[in-house]
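User: Just a sanity check before I run the rest of the batch. Below are the C-alpha cells for the first item. I only need the designed sequence back.
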C-alpha cells in the first residue's frame, strides 16, 4: 500500500479527499463529529510538513445547491479543531478561477475546504474534466475516504489518473483492520448480525457463513429466516421473496459447520410509533397481529454467552428498532456487554451500527469501528474497491 509515510510533502500542495459527511439535524448543526476527527491525524501530519491542503468532502445527496449541505460548518469546525496557528478557509466553489486564486493567496501550512463536491454533477458521474481540473490545483493526491472507495466518483477514482496518490492514515487503518478480519481473525469468530433487511446483507451473509464460526442473527432480518424455518412471525418485517435465500444460507451453514442461531423470543408491539401493547413472546407463540421490534431477554442472554466465548466479534446491524427507546434494549445490552469484555476483539461495521454504538456511549470500548458503511461491507464480501486500486499497486 502506498501511504503518506512514503514521501516528503514539504512545500507542496496536496489534495486530500476525506469523508466528512457528518450527520446534521434540521438546523444544519453537526450531531456527531467523529467523521471530522477521523481525518485530523492525516491533515496534521501533512500540515506539519508545511504542505498546503485542499480538502474535499461530500455531504449528503444534494439535488441542488442546498444551503444545509454546504461545507461551511465543516470548515468552521475543522478550523477550531486544527487550532489558531492553521488558517482554514472555505471556497464557495469546487473548481474555477476563484478557487485557484484563493488557493494561490494562501500560505503553506493552511487548509482550503472546497464546497460540497456533490454540488457538481460531474462527481457522481466520474466526470474526467472535473477530476483533471481538481488535480491541476495540487502536486499530490491523498485519499483518506475509504467509505467512498466503492464508488467510481471523480474525486475518488478520477484524480489519481492525474496525480501521484497515497493513502491517508484513516484509509490505511481501515484496510489493515479489515484485511486482518478477512484473513486471520482470532477464533472463535462470531458474527452478530442484525439490521432491517436480508436483501441488503445477502452478499455479506453468503461470504461470512464460510468465514465465521457462529452467526447470531437478530433484528428485522431474523423474521425472514424464522419464517423460512416455518415459524409464524405475525406482522413483523418480512421479505417473502427472500425466503429461499434464507433457506439456502441455513443450508450453507449446515454444510460448512457454522452454527446459526436465531432469536427465541421477541419484544412485540401493536404500533411502532404509538405502542399500546408491549410484551415478550416466545417464537413458538408469536401473535398474528403484532410486530417484533426487538429481541427478547432469553435471546439476549443466549447471544451474550456466545459473544463472551468469542475471540473476535463482528457487529453489523442493530438487534431491534433501537431508534425508539422502548425497543433499544437488545441492542443496548449486547453492545454494552461486549464493550466490557477485554479479551474479545470487537469490530463494528455499518452506519446504523456505528450510530447505535455511539448513542449508547460505548464507542471507546470497541476495538475498531469501521466508518466505511457500504465500502466496508463490499470489502468484507471480497469485491474490488475501485478507489483503492491505485493505492494498492
Ligand atoms: P447498518 O447501517 O449498521 O448496516 P442496517 O441499515 O442494515 O444497519 O439496519 C439498521 C436498521 O434496522 C435500523 O434502522 C433499525 O431500526 C432496523 N431494524 C432493526 N430491527 C428491526 C426490526 N425488528 N424491525 C424492523 N426494523 C428493524
Ligand atoms: Mg443502515
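Assistant: Here's the designed sequence for the first item:
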Amino acid at each position: 500500500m502506498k501511504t503518506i509515510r512514503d514521501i516528503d510533502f514539504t512545500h507542496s500542495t496536496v489534495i486530500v479527499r476525506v469523508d466528512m459527511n457528518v450527520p446534521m439535524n434540521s438546523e444544519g448543526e453537526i450531531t456527531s463529529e467523529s467523521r471530522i476527527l477521523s481525518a485530523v491525524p492525516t491533515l496534521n501530519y501533512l500540515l506539519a510538513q508545511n504542505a498546503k491542503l485542499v480538502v474535499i468532502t461530500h455531504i449528503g445527496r444534494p439535488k441542488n445547491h442546498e444551503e444545509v449541505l454546504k461545507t461551511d460548518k465543516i470548515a468552521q469546525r475543522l478550523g477550531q479543531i486544527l487550532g489558531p496557528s492553521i488558517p482554514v478557509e472555505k471556497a464557495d466553489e469546487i473548481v474555477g478561477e476563484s478557487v485557484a486564486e484563493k488557493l494561490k493567496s494562501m500560505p503553506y501550512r493552511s487548509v482550503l475546504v472546497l464546497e460540497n463536491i456533490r454540488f457538481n454533477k460531474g462527481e457522481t458521474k466520474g466526470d474526467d474534466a472535473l477530476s483533471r481540473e481538481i488535480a491541476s490545483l495540487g502536486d499530490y493526491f491523498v485519499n483518506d475516504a475509504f467509505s467512498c472507495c466503492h464508488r467510481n466518483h471523480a474525486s475518488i477514482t478520477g484524480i489519481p489518473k492525474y496525480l501521484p496518490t497515497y493513502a491517508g492514515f484513516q484509509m490505511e487503518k481501515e484496510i489493515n483492520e479489515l484485511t486482518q478480519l478477512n484473513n486471520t481473525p482470532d477464533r472463535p469468530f462470531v458474527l452478530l448480525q442484525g439490521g432491517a433487511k436480508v436483501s441488503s446483507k445477502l452478499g455479506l451473509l453468503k461470504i461470512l457463513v464460510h468465514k465465521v464460526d457462529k452467526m447470531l442473527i437478530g433484528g428485522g432480518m431474523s423474521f425472514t429466516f424464522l419464517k423460512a424455518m416455518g415459524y409464524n412471525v405475525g406482522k413483523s418485517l418480512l421479505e417473502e421473496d427472500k425466503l429461499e435465500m434464507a433457506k439456502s444460507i441455513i443450508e450453507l451453514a449446515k454444510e460448512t459447520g457454522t452454527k446459526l442461531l436465531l432469536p427465541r423470543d421477541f419484544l412485540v408491539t401493536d404500533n411502532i410509533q404509538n405502542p399500546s401493547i408491549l410484551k415478550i413472546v416466545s417464537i413458538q407463540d408469536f401473535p398474528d397481529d403484532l410486530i417484533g421490534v426487538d429481541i427478547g431477554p432469553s435471546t439476549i442472554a443466549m447471544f451474550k454467552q456466545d459473544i463472551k466465548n468469542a475471540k473476535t466479534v463482528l457487529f453489523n446491524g442493530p438487534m431491534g428498532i433501537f431508534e425508539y427507546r422502548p425497543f433499544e434494549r437488545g441492542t443496548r445490552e449486547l453492545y454494552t456487554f461486549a464493550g466490557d469484555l477485554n479479551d474479545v476483539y470487537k469490530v463494528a461495521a455499518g452506519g446504523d451500527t456505528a450510530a447505535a454504538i455511539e448513542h449508547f456511549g460505548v464507542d471507546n470500548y470497541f476495538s475498531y469501528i469501521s466508518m466505511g458503511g457500504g465500502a466496508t461491507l463490499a470489502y468484507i464480501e471480497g469485491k474490488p474497491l475501485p478507489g483503492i486500486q491505485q493505492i494498492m499497486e
